[in-house]
Write the structure tokens for this entry.
Amino acid sequence: MTTQIVESVLAEAEKQDAKKVTEVHLTIGKLTFLGIEQVRFAYRILVEDTIMKGSKLIIKEKSGVIECPSCGYKGTLETEDNPMYHVPTPILKCPECGEAAKIVEGKECTIERIRMVK
Ligand SMILES: [Zn+2]
């Protein structure tokens, strides 16, 4: 995932003819289960030999949203950090009617803004 982000940023920087990338703003959906620290760590390694070296990575987390096909409920999906498991486990149940709900937001990872020097 982080590789894809870095590649996209580099492609964009190249298109814009940038000399250096100074800031990358990301929005990461909580349901991607990407650990922010893991992303930061991978990022630092991946940008090492690129024009992104030394750039600041700003990450914003976005909550998941579920929608219930049975009653039409739409709301934020809360995940619980269970120390027993490595990742938080979302309960995909509609809080209104108890039917199975589906995820409509929170599984994406978007590059919001790139600041670069030309
Ligand atoms: Zn429902």
Residues 21 and 28 are 20 Å apart (CA to CA). The mean pLDDT is 90.
